[in-house]
Structures are given as C-alpha cells and as structure tokens.
Amino acid sequence: VLMDVNGEISKPEIASFEQFFGANALSDRLDIEKTKATLDDRVAQANEQATLAQRMQVLRDLCCISRADGPVADSECKVLRSLAADLGIGEHFVRRTLEELNNVELD
C-alpha cells in the first residue's frame, strides 16, 4: 500500500521489500486493492497482538522501504504518519526515523 501510493512500485522499493521478506516475496499475484481494503483490520490486529516495540519496528521497516528509491515523497510521509497514529506511535517517530536513514546514507 505504501509503495503504491505514487501509482507504481519502483525496483529499489521491491529490492528493499525483499530484503525484509525474502526473495520473490513481492509477486505479481499481490492484490494491492485487497491489501488496501484489509489495512484497517491488519492494523487492529497488530495493535492487539504486537508490542509497541514490534509495531515501531514494522513502521521503521516501512520507512526503510519508502526511502529505498530516494527522498520520501510527501504522499508517502502522509501515509507513514497516518499508519503511525493508527499503530499508537507518535508521528515524530516517522520524522526521526527518516532523518536517521538520511544520515546513515551520508556517512
């Protein structure tokens, strides 16, 4: 859902996704619309079953994926901030994580 926010999924985003989930984890069979439709249920399930630290790690991973193809677009930041709020995480976590990812690349 996050990778598709700009209408297409880039090769660097796919590569980053596969670093987290394994080779060929993102296939043509992925139904983006179905994933979007079930997002609220998935977030609710994460809030029920995952610790705050686990939810923060997922959000960090999503920040890494969104950063994979260059600067994070405003539309992607909006989705990340919304997900953070839905997961009970302050939006400052998204900002700080993206800043840290930028600093790592500069070092």
Short structural description:
The protein has 107 residues and is mostly helical. It contains six helices and no strands. Helix content is 68%, strand content 0%.
Features:
107 residues, globular, mainly alpha
What is the H/E order?
HHHHHH
Q: From the alpha carbons, calculate the radius of gyration and give it in angstroms.
A: 14 Å
Structural class: mainly alpha
The beta-strand count equals 0
Overall spatial form: globular
Question: How far is the first residue's CA from the last residue's CA?
Answer: 30 Å
The helix tally amounts to 6
What profile does the largest beta sheet have?
none
Question: What does this protein look like?
Answer:
- With 107 residues, the chain is an all-alpha fold.
- α5 crosses α6.
- The radius of gyration is 14 Å and the shape is globular.
- The mean pLDDT is 85.
List the helices and strands and how they pair.
Elements: H1 11-21, H2 32-37, H3 39-49, H4 52-67, H5 74-86, H6 91-106
